Amino acid sequence: MYLQKITIKNYRCFQNFSMEFQKGLNVIIGANNSGKTGLLYAIRLLKDPSVYVDDFNKNDLLEFNNKYRNEAPQIEVTYTIRHLILESDTEDESIIRLLPFLGMDNLNETLTEENGVYQYDVTAVIKAVCSLDVKVLGDYKSAISDITDFNGFVTVLKSFISRYSWSYYNGTNDTVADRKDALGIFDIRFIGAERTSEAVSKETRREIDKFAKDQNNITALEQLKSDISIQMKDLLQPALEKLSQLFENENNDIGLTRGNVTISHDLRPSVSVGDAYVTEVRDTHADYNIPLDYNGLGYNNLISIYMLIKLMEIRKGRDFRILCLEEPEAHLHPAMQYKLFKYLRKLDETDKLNQQIFVTTHSSNISAVAGIDNMYMLAHERVNGQSNCKQQSLAVHFATKPDAKIHLTKFLDVTRSDMLFADKVILVEGIAEKLLLPLFMEKCGCPYEDEHISVVEIGGKHFGHFVELFNGNAVSKKVLCITDRDFRWRDDGAIQCYSEYENGTTSHIEDLKEGFPINNFQIYTQNLGGRTFEDELFFTNLDNTAVGKALFKLVASPSVSSFADTYGFDYAVWNNIEKHKEIDGRSRPLITKLLDEFNTVITSDNSKEDFYKRLFFAELFLYYAEAKKGDTALNILTDTAISNNLIVPKYIKDGLIWLLK
């Protein structure tokens, strides 16, 4: 049995929200304040109903003047429960629990047969409504009749909260159901982010008490208490005699004789058997025990979660259970997060969880190992004054995108998983762009942290697989793709004309444009003459001789760097063969060959002479930077003379402007 779907109306951040789940592990991912905790609390209401004024959706209450003058606001949560019942399993009592919430008319239609085994696929629907007692509706209407502002309305509503209560219905036919029937279907355990060992203690006490109450064990336990009492009396005999002398020789001093009573005493151990069971931590090196409260929070979290999962093994099949884990990454080292979820996923894949688990997280360490089929994206969207939560099951999203799913399963590591939690995403090809983009965003006035932007290096040009994550996703995120134009300036020993660059297309860019004609995705690439990030960066900063020389010095050989230091980027000087004697022998042939090719294109297309001369230096810079792109980016960041004066390439600046709109 498991919770297949929940529909939430007017509860916390949910105005009208529906979400489907799967049996086993469900990992809810999203940024802070995306509704993750609210979702867990809505699930918990099925076991532990409560209501506070702040549970009402505030965006809905803002419309109190139009909605709630004549009727009070209410909260509605509908739970759809699914369970497979074997016709031959006479011990499965779940049908009794679900009976008040079944749609009996369709029950026979759910019967299926496979290899002679018959089973019912049963769906039950529980509708829980929290509403104001109709007896005080008149008082409520009078109380708000003169209220004109939102805060005043909330104050009045708070005064009526004690008159709110939960009612339960069969969600299929709206017949009234008993509260006890609704709350008895699932055993729901909630482990909050600020967790203690108390949840585990309750569970273990319950198991011990269950044993102690068994008729076969009561006599033995009572005899044990009697034996303990006798031993305690022997041990405490001197103290007992002293107390006896004090109290038993009352001699009618206070008139007890008339009442035919006297003071007596005994020793009866009254310790609860369940309370006698304690969970401690044993130091495996020194072999001593310490209480859980004295142990580190991280390991205590692991112990609590593990024990709650393992306890289900002794109740398998009879106690239908939901475990809600809020931010299990709290106090956990990244490696421990990874280990925990690797264990949970293994149990889920082998169908050994024995319960449905809901996990909320904003840890990329957890999302990296949780598995795409187990993850659900959640976001709280605020657009044009409207606010609501959106969700997306990644299993459903990738159901028709097998290639993208396989690729993401392989490459969605800890660093790339960060994009699942961001509000906006920038996809780049390599490490150099990833390292320098925060600097560029700062220079462009783009608040990197405030906008919750994730920069993801995909390690190549396979953008399509990553863009698919946001293509048609109900949780909409703006995705900026910064990619290289990859134009081949040098073709068979000759430099291409500028018109070829201006009018040319790039296959992977065209494929992305055709494959993803969606509003939340844009591609930006070099447009000044560069074919990669590095040569476009140099192109952009060439007019500032000091920055140009500093950049050149980061990549070029010592003699070429010295030559640039001495003569700058004067094409005429570089074109002077006599000057080449100052350049080392390994670099000289390359520069000479490049100059010959550029001189040829300048002669044939002299209207773009200045452009080609600048392009010569950009190509030379790229040649030296090609094998050290990451190092070059790091050196730029650590050299304040460069980073403080660096100009952001236009295509990147334009992309950031779009992203911030």
TrEMBL record:
<dbReference type="Pfam" id="PF20469">
    <property type="entry name" value="OLD-like_TOPRIM"/>
</dbReference>
<dbReference type="InterPro" id="IPR034139">
    <property type="entry name" value="TOPRIM_OLD"/>
</dbReference>
<feature type="domain" description="Endonuclease GajA/Old nuclease/RecF-like AAA">
    <location>
        <begin position="1"/>
        <end position="366"/>
    </location>
</feature>
<dbReference type="InterPro" id="IPR027417">
    <property type="entry name" value="P-loop_NTPase"/>
</dbReference>
<dbReference type="InterPro" id="IPR041685">
    <property type="entry name" value="AAA_GajA/Old/RecF-like"/>
</dbReference>
<dbReference type="InterPro" id="IPR051396">
    <property type="entry name" value="Bact_Antivir_Def_Nuclease"/>
</dbReference>
<dbReference type="Pfam" id="PF13175">
    <property type="entry name" value="AAA_15"/>
</dbReference>
<feature type="domain" description="OLD protein-like TOPRIM">
    <location>
        <begin position="420"/>
        <end position="486"/>
    </location>
</feature>
<protein>
    <submittedName>
        <fullName>DUF2813 domain-containing protein</fullName>
    </submittedName>
</protein>
